Amino acid sequence: MIKLIPVDRLLPGMYIHDLNCGWMEHNFVRNSFEVSDMATAEKVRALGTHEVYIDTDRGLDVANAPTLEEAAHEVDEQIEAIVTTSTSPVAPASLADEVARARLLHREANVIVRNMMGDIRLGKQIELERIEPLVTQIVDSIFRQQDALLPLSLLKSHDEYTFQHSVSVCTLMTSFARALALPREIIHEIAIGALLHDVGKAKVPDAILNKPAKLTDAEFDKMKSHVVQSKVILLGTPGISDIALDVAAQHHERFDGTGYPNKLKGEQISLYGQMGAIVDVYDALTSNRCYHKGRPPTEALRKLLEWSKFHFKPDLVQAFIRTIGIYPSGSLVRLESGRLAVVQEQHTDKLMQPTVKVMFHTKGHYLTPEIVDLRRSQDRIVSHESFEEWKIDPQQWLPA
Ligand SMILES: [Fe+2]
Fold first, then answer.
1. Ligand 1: distance of its center to the CA of 339 in Å?
2. For residue 393, is pLDDT > 60?
3. Which residues touch 181 (CB under 8 Å, ≥6 apart)?
4. What is the pTM of this model?
5. From ligand 1's centre to the CA of 199, what distance in Å?
6. What's the CATH number where 284 sits?
Protein backbone atom coordinates (compact mmCIF):
# COMPACT_ATOMS: atom_id res chain seq x y z
CA MET A 1 0.00 0.00 0.00
CA ILE A 2 1.20 3.54 -0.77
CA LYS A 3 0.92 5.96 2.16
CA LEU A 4 1.71 9.63 2.68
CA ILE A 5 3.79 10.28 5.81
CA PRO A 6 5.43 13.35 7.36
CA VAL A 7 9.21 13.21 6.76
CA ASP A 8 9.94 13.28 10.47
CA ARG A 9 8.38 9.79 10.70
CA LEU A 10 10.75 8.43 8.04
CA LEU A 11 12.97 5.60 9.34
CA PRO A 12 15.52 3.13 7.96
CA GLY A 13 13.70 0.10 6.53
CA MET A 14 10.95 2.17 4.92
CA TYR A 15 10.69 2.23 1.15
CA ILE A 16 10.22 5.63 -0.48
CA HIS A 17 7.77 5.37 -3.35
CA ASP A 18 7.90 9.07 -4.26
CA LEU A 19 10.02 11.86 -2.75
CA ASN A 20 7.14 14.17 -3.57
CA CYS A 21 9.20 17.29 -4.12
CA GLY A 22 9.66 17.67 -7.85
CA TRP A 23 12.76 16.59 -9.77
CA MET A 24 14.42 20.00 -9.59
CA GLU A 25 14.66 20.09 -5.84
CA HIS A 26 16.92 17.10 -5.18
CA ASN A 27 19.87 15.16 -6.49
CA PHE A 28 18.89 11.65 -5.46
CA VAL A 29 19.44 9.28 -8.39
CA ARG A 30 15.92 7.93 -8.21
CA ASN A 31 12.62 9.04 -6.82
CA SER A 32 11.94 5.55 -5.33
CA PHE A 33 14.38 3.70 -3.06
CA GLU A 34 14.79 1.97 0.29
CA VAL A 35 15.90 4.14 3.19
CA SER A 36 18.97 2.14 4.18
CA ASP A 37 20.17 4.16 7.15
CA MET A 38 19.55 7.22 9.32
CA ALA A 39 21.86 9.34 7.13
CA THR A 40 19.62 8.76 4.09
CA ALA A 41 16.52 9.63 6.14
CA GLU A 42 18.28 12.83 7.25
CA LYS A 43 19.21 13.69 3.64
CA VAL A 44 15.56 13.34 2.61
CA ARG A 45 14.50 15.59 5.49
CA ALA A 46 17.10 18.16 4.43
CA LEU A 47 15.41 18.46 1.00
CA GLY A 48 12.71 20.66 2.48
CA THR A 49 9.94 18.26 1.53
CA HIS A 50 7.39 17.82 4.33
CA GLU A 51 5.68 14.63 3.26
CA VAL A 52 6.83 11.61 1.23
CA TYR A 53 5.00 8.60 -0.16
CA ILE A 54 6.15 5.21 1.14
CA ASP A 55 5.38 1.71 -0.20
CA THR A 56 4.43 -0.46 2.76
CA ASP A 57 4.65 -3.66 0.67
CA ARG A 58 8.35 -3.03 0.13
CA GLY A 59 9.32 -1.67 3.54
CA LEU A 60 8.16 -0.78 7.05
CA ASP A 61 4.61 0.49 7.58
CA VAL A 62 3.39 3.55 9.54
CA ALA A 63 0.10 3.49 11.43
CA ASN A 64 -2.46 6.31 11.04
CA ALA A 65 -1.07 7.66 7.77
CA PRO A 66 -3.40 8.43 4.85
CA THR A 67 -3.21 6.18 1.80
CA LEU A 68 -2.45 7.51 -1.68
CA GLU A 69 -6.18 7.42 -2.43
CA GLU A 70 -7.06 9.36 0.72
CA ALA A 71 -4.42 12.00 -0.08
CA ALA A 72 -5.77 12.25 -3.65
CA HIS A 73 -9.28 12.69 -2.28
CA GLU A 74 -8.11 15.79 -0.39
CA VAL A 75 -6.80 17.27 -3.68
CA ASP A 76 -10.14 16.40 -5.35
CA GLU A 77 -11.97 18.43 -2.73
CA GLN A 78 -9.74 21.44 -3.43
CA ILE A 79 -10.41 21.10 -7.17
CA GLU A 80 -14.13 21.00 -6.43
CA ALA A 81 -13.74 24.34 -4.62
CA ILE A 82 -11.87 25.82 -7.60
CA VAL A 83 -14.57 24.73 -10.04
CA THR A 84 -17.37 26.22 -8.01
CA THR A 85 -15.70 29.62 -7.56
CA SER A 86 -14.69 30.29 -11.16
CA THR A 87 -16.14 33.31 -12.86
CA SER A 88 -16.84 34.32 -16.39
CA PRO A 89 -14.19 36.61 -17.96
CA VAL A 90 -14.43 39.02 -20.85
CA ALA A 91 -15.15 37.04 -24.03
CA PRO A 92 -11.82 36.36 -25.76
CA ALA A 93 -11.06 36.96 -29.43
CA SER A 94 -11.47 34.07 -31.84
CA LEU A 95 -8.95 31.26 -31.31
CA ALA A 96 -8.64 30.65 -35.05
CA ASP A 97 -7.55 34.26 -35.57
CA GLU A 98 -4.83 34.12 -32.92
CA VAL A 99 -3.27 30.71 -33.61
CA ALA A 100 -1.01 31.53 -36.59
CA ARG A 101 0.18 34.75 -34.96
CA ALA A 102 0.94 32.93 -31.70
CA ARG A 103 2.96 30.21 -33.44
CA LEU A 104 5.16 32.74 -35.21
CA LEU A 105 5.60 34.70 -32.01
CA HIS A 106 6.54 31.58 -30.06
CA ARG A 107 9.19 30.64 -32.62
CA GLU A 108 10.60 34.16 -32.66
CA ALA A 109 10.66 34.32 -28.84
CA ASN A 110 12.74 31.13 -28.63
CA VAL A 111 15.28 32.50 -31.12
CA ILE A 112 15.57 35.81 -29.26
CA VAL A 113 16.08 34.11 -25.89
CA ARG A 114 18.64 31.68 -27.37
CA ASN A 115 20.65 34.59 -28.84
CA MET A 116 20.40 36.56 -25.62
CA MET A 117 21.74 33.63 -23.57
CA GLY A 118 24.62 33.31 -26.06
CA ASP A 119 25.41 37.01 -25.62
CA ILE A 120 25.37 36.73 -21.82
CA ARG A 121 27.79 33.81 -22.03
CA LEU A 122 30.11 36.10 -23.95
CA GLY A 123 29.88 38.61 -21.13
CA LYS A 124 27.58 41.07 -22.92
CA GLN A 125 24.96 43.10 -21.09
CA ILE A 126 21.24 42.52 -21.70
CA GLU A 127 19.73 45.28 -23.81
CA LEU A 128 16.16 45.58 -22.58
CA GLU A 129 15.06 47.52 -25.66
CA ARG A 130 15.74 44.37 -27.70
CA ILE A 131 13.29 42.26 -25.73
CA GLU A 132 10.65 44.89 -24.89
CA PRO A 133 8.83 44.58 -28.26
CA LEU A 134 8.74 40.78 -27.89
CA VAL A 135 7.29 41.01 -24.39
CA THR A 136 4.68 43.52 -25.58
CA GLN A 137 3.61 41.10 -28.31
CA ILE A 138 3.40 38.19 -25.84
CA VAL A 139 1.25 40.23 -23.43
CA ASP A 140 -0.98 41.37 -26.31
CA SER A 141 -1.45 37.81 -27.58
CA ILE A 142 -2.36 36.51 -24.11
CA PHE A 143 -4.86 39.35 -23.66
CA ARG A 144 -6.50 38.64 -27.02
CA GLN A 145 -6.79 34.85 -26.68
CA GLN A 146 -4.50 32.95 -24.31
CA ASP A 147 -5.40 29.49 -25.59
CA ALA A 148 -3.36 30.12 -28.74
CA LEU A 149 0.01 30.73 -27.05
CA LEU A 150 -0.29 28.75 -23.81
CA PRO A 151 -0.45 25.19 -25.26
CA LEU A 152 2.78 25.83 -27.16
CA SER A 153 4.52 25.88 -23.77
CA LEU A 154 3.84 22.14 -23.56
CA LEU A 155 5.96 21.40 -26.64
CA LYS A 156 9.63 21.31 -25.69
CA SER A 157 12.70 19.52 -26.92
CA HIS A 158 15.43 18.31 -24.53
CA ASP A 159 18.29 20.37 -25.90
CA GLU A 160 16.34 23.62 -26.14
CA TYR A 161 14.91 23.36 -22.63
CA THR A 162 16.45 26.47 -21.09
CA PHE A 163 15.20 28.84 -23.83
CA GLN A 164 11.80 27.22 -24.18
CA HIS A 165 11.31 27.14 -20.41
CA SER A 166 11.97 30.91 -20.26
CA VAL A 167 9.40 31.61 -22.97
CA SER A 168 6.85 29.28 -21.36
CA VAL A 169 7.26 30.85 -17.93
CA CYS A 170 6.79 34.25 -19.57
CA THR A 171 3.50 33.30 -21.27
CA LEU A 172 2.15 31.47 -18.21
CA MET A 173 3.07 34.34 -15.86
CA THR A 174 1.42 36.86 -18.16
CA SER A 175 -1.78 34.92 -18.17
CA PHE A 176 -1.60 34.38 -14.39
CA ALA A 177 -1.07 38.13 -13.79
CA ARG A 178 -3.93 38.96 -16.12
CA ALA A 179 -6.25 36.61 -14.22
CA LEU A 180 -5.26 38.35 -10.97
CA ALA A 181 -6.40 41.59 -12.63
CA LEU A 182 -3.04 43.32 -12.11
CA PRO A 183 -2.51 46.60 -14.01
CA ARG A 184 -1.14 46.22 -17.53
CA GLU A 185 2.14 48.08 -16.75
CA ILE A 186 2.84 45.67 -13.89
CA ILE A 187 2.00 42.67 -16.07
CA HIS A 188 4.56 43.91 -18.59
CA GLU A 189 7.27 44.03 -15.91
CA ILE A 190 6.28 40.59 -14.60
CA ALA A 191 6.57 39.23 -18.15
CA ILE A 192 10.08 40.72 -18.52
CA GLY A 193 11.15 39.18 -15.20
CA ALA A 194 9.69 35.83 -16.26
CA LEU A 195 11.46 35.83 -19.61
CA LEU A 196 14.75 36.65 -17.86
CA HIS A 197 14.29 34.62 -14.66
CA ASP A 198 16.85 31.96 -15.60
CA VAL A 199 19.46 34.11 -17.39
CA GLY A 200 21.89 33.10 -14.64
CA LYS A 201 21.95 29.65 -16.25
CA ALA A 202 24.20 31.19 -18.91
CA LYS A 203 26.84 31.15 -16.18
CA VAL A 204 26.32 27.45 -15.37
CA PRO A 205 28.39 25.07 -17.56
CA ASP A 206 26.39 23.10 -20.15
CA ALA A 207 27.90 19.90 -18.77
CA ILE A 208 25.96 20.54 -15.55
CA LEU A 209 22.80 22.00 -17.13
CA ASN A 210 22.34 18.98 -19.40
CA LYS A 211 24.10 16.26 -17.42
CA PRO A 212 22.19 13.04 -18.11
CA ALA A 213 23.01 11.62 -14.67
CA LYS A 214 22.91 12.48 -11.01
CA LEU A 215 24.59 15.79 -10.12
CA THR A 216 27.24 15.71 -7.42
CA ASP A 217 26.61 17.94 -4.40
CA ALA A 218 29.10 20.48 -5.80
CA GLU A 219 27.42 20.46 -9.23
CA PHE A 220 24.03 20.80 -7.59
CA ASP A 221 25.24 23.87 -5.68
CA LYS A 222 26.55 25.32 -8.95
CA MET A 223 23.15 24.70 -10.55
CA LYS A 224 21.39 26.46 -7.67
CA SER A 225 23.75 29.41 -7.99
CA HIS A 226 21.93 30.39 -11.21
CA VAL A 227 19.43 32.36 -9.13
CA VAL A 228 22.08 34.63 -7.64
CA GLN A 229 23.69 34.90 -11.08
CA SER A 230 20.34 35.95 -12.58
CA LYS A 231 20.05 38.67 -9.95
CA VAL A 232 23.59 39.92 -10.59
CA ILE A 233 23.00 40.03 -14.35
CA LEU A 234 19.68 41.86 -13.97
CA LEU A 235 21.11 44.36 -11.47
CA GLY A 236 23.59 45.21 -14.22
CA THR A 237 20.81 45.69 -16.79
CA PRO A 238 19.91 49.35 -17.36
CA GLY A 239 16.17 49.98 -16.98
CA ILE A 240 15.27 46.76 -15.16
CA SER A 241 12.37 47.17 -12.69
CA ASP A 242 12.12 45.91 -9.10
CA ILE A 243 9.18 43.75 -10.18
CA ALA A 244 11.22 41.95 -12.83
CA LEU A 245 14.06 41.54 -10.30
CA ASP A 246 11.69 39.98 -7.75
CA VAL A 247 10.45 37.39 -10.23
CA ALA A 248 14.00 36.32 -11.09
CA ALA A 249 15.60 36.56 -7.65
CA GLN A 250 12.78 34.82 -5.75
CA HIS A 251 11.53 32.09 -8.08
CA HIS A 252 13.20 29.34 -6.02
CA GLU A 253 12.09 30.65 -2.62
CA ARG A 254 9.34 28.63 -0.95
CA PHE A 255 6.48 29.86 1.25
CA ASP A 256 7.64 27.75 4.24
CA GLY A 257 11.21 29.09 4.09
CA THR A 258 12.76 25.95 2.57
CA GLY A 259 13.73 27.55 -0.74
CA TYR A 260 16.89 29.29 -1.87
CA PRO A 261 18.99 31.42 -2.04
CA ASN A 262 17.71 33.45 0.96
CA LYS A 263 15.26 31.04 2.65
CA LEU A 264 12.64 33.80 2.58
CA LYS A 265 9.35 32.90 4.27
CA GLY A 266 5.69 33.72 3.63
CA GLU A 267 5.06 37.32 2.70
CA GLN A 268 8.79 38.09 2.80
CA ILE A 269 8.52 36.73 -0.75
CA SER A 270 6.84 39.30 -2.98
CA LEU A 271 3.67 38.41 -4.88
CA TYR A 272 5.77 38.33 -8.07
CA GLY A 273 8.30 35.93 -6.54
CA GLN A 274 5.49 33.68 -5.28
CA MET A 275 3.86 33.64 -8.71
CA GLY A 276 7.23 32.88 -10.31
CA ALA A 277 7.78 29.90 -8.03
CA ILE A 278 4.40 28.35 -8.89
CA VAL A 279 4.77 28.84 -12.64
CA ASP A 280 8.41 27.69 -12.68
CA VAL A 281 7.53 24.43 -10.92
CA TYR A 282 4.47 23.84 -13.13
CA ASP A 283 6.47 24.29 -16.31
CA ALA A 284 9.36 22.14 -15.05
CA LEU A 285 6.99 19.33 -14.02
CA THR A 286 5.32 19.23 -17.43
CA SER A 287 8.64 19.20 -19.36
CA ASN A 288 10.72 16.21 -20.45
CA ARG A 289 14.31 16.44 -19.20
CA CYS A 290 17.38 14.21 -19.42
CA TYR A 291 16.07 11.55 -17.06
CA HIS A 292 12.77 12.99 -15.97
CA LYS A 293 9.59 12.37 -17.93
CA GLY A 294 7.19 15.31 -18.13
CA ARG A 295 3.87 14.82 -16.33
CA PRO A 296 0.54 15.57 -18.00
CA PRO A 297 -0.54 19.15 -17.06
CA THR A 298 -3.50 18.06 -14.91
CA GLU A 299 -1.22 15.80 -12.86
CA ALA A 300 1.30 18.64 -12.42
CA LEU A 301 -1.49 20.92 -11.14
CA ARG A 302 -2.60 18.27 -8.64
CA LYS A 303 1.00 18.11 -7.37
CA LEU A 304 1.10 21.90 -6.98
CA LEU A 305 -2.11 21.78 -4.95
CA GLU A 306 -0.70 19.03 -2.77
CA TRP A 307 2.53 20.96 -2.14
CA SER A 308 0.70 24.23 -1.56
CA LYS A 309 0.17 23.07 2.02
CA PHE A 310 3.81 24.06 2.55
CA HIS A 311 5.67 25.43 -0.45
CA PHE A 312 3.21 27.86 -1.98
CA LYS A 313 0.32 29.99 -0.85
CA PRO A 314 -2.76 27.78 -1.44
CA ASP A 315 -4.97 30.68 -2.63
CA LEU A 316 -2.41 31.59 -5.26
CA VAL A 317 -2.08 28.01 -6.55
CA GLN A 318 -5.87 27.85 -6.81
CA ALA A 319 -5.90 31.13 -8.73
CA PHE A 320 -3.26 29.74 -11.10
CA ILE A 321 -5.39 26.65 -11.75
CA ARG A 322 -8.41 28.83 -12.45
CA THR A 323 -6.20 30.72 -14.92
CA ILE A 324 -5.12 27.79 -17.08
CA GLY A 325 -7.95 25.37 -16.31
CA ILE A 326 -8.07 21.98 -14.63
CA TYR A 327 -7.51 20.43 -18.06
CA PRO A 328 -5.17 23.05 -19.59
CA SER A 329 -5.40 23.76 -23.31
CA GLY A 330 -3.16 21.36 -25.20
CA SER A 331 -3.70 18.47 -22.77
CA LEU A 332 -5.07 15.06 -23.67
CA VAL A 333 -8.29 13.89 -22.01
CA ARG A 334 -10.50 10.81 -22.08
CA LEU A 335 -14.22 11.27 -22.53
CA GLU A 336 -16.95 9.11 -21.06
CA SER A 337 -17.72 7.85 -24.58
CA GLY A 338 -14.27 6.19 -24.71
CA ARG A 339 -12.91 8.82 -27.10
CA LEU A 340 -9.68 10.79 -26.57
CA ALA A 341 -9.55 14.50 -27.25
CA VAL A 342 -7.10 17.41 -27.06
CA VAL A 343 -8.29 20.45 -25.10
CA GLN A 344 -8.55 23.52 -27.39
CA GLU A 345 -10.20 26.31 -25.44
CA GLN A 346 -11.10 27.07 -21.83
CA HIS A 347 -14.41 28.44 -20.59
CA THR A 348 -13.39 29.96 -17.27
CA ASP A 349 -16.88 29.70 -15.82
CA LYS A 350 -17.07 25.99 -16.83
CA LEU A 351 -13.59 24.61 -16.19
CA MET A 352 -14.73 20.99 -16.47
CA GLN A 353 -16.28 21.61 -19.89
CA PRO A 354 -13.67 23.08 -22.24
CA THR A 355 -13.92 22.90 -26.02
CA VAL A 356 -11.97 19.85 -27.24
CA LYS A 357 -10.87 18.24 -30.49
CA VAL A 358 -11.97 14.58 -30.50
CA MET A 359 -9.53 12.48 -32.56
CA PHE A 360 -8.87 8.98 -31.22
CA HIS A 361 -10.79 6.06 -29.76
CA THR A 362 -9.44 4.13 -26.79
CA LYS A 363 -10.15 0.95 -28.79
CA GLY A 364 -7.00 2.01 -30.68
CA HIS A 365 -7.98 3.85 -33.85
CA TYR A 366 -8.05 7.44 -35.02
CA LEU A 367 -11.39 9.18 -35.60
CA THR A 368 -12.31 11.92 -38.01
CA PRO A 369 -11.30 15.00 -35.97
CA GLU A 370 -14.26 16.89 -34.55
CA ILE A 371 -14.45 20.04 -32.43
CA VAL A 372 -16.80 19.53 -29.48
CA ASP A 373 -17.86 22.21 -27.02
CA LEU A 374 -18.42 20.09 -23.91
CA ARG A 375 -20.83 22.69 -22.49
CA ARG A 376 -23.26 21.64 -25.20
CA SER A 377 -22.50 17.91 -25.33
CA GLN A 378 -23.77 14.79 -23.56
CA ASP A 379 -20.16 13.63 -23.36
CA ARG A 380 -17.86 14.63 -20.48
CA ILE A 381 -14.22 14.36 -19.40
CA VAL A 382 -13.52 11.41 -17.13
CA SER A 383 -9.71 11.63 -16.83
CA HIS A 384 -6.51 13.16 -18.15
CA GLU A 385 -4.22 10.99 -20.28
CA SER A 386 -0.58 10.94 -21.41
CA PHE A 387 0.31 11.57 -25.07
CA GLU A 388 3.37 9.40 -24.64
CA GLU A 389 1.46 6.38 -23.38
CA TRP A 390 -0.97 6.57 -26.31
CA LYS A 391 1.90 7.31 -28.73
CA ILE A 392 0.04 10.36 -30.03
CA ASP A 393 1.94 13.40 -31.32
CA PRO A 394 0.54 16.44 -29.45
CA GLN A 395 1.84 18.86 -32.09
CA GLN A 396 -0.66 17.64 -34.65
CA TRP A 397 -3.74 18.24 -32.52
CA LEU A 398 -3.23 21.70 -31.08
CA PRO A 399 -5.58 24.46 -32.25
CA ALA A 400 -4.97 25.20 -35.93
FE1 LIG B 1 15.38 28.62 -12.04
1. 38
2. yes
3. none
4. 0.90
5. 9
6. 1.10.3210.10
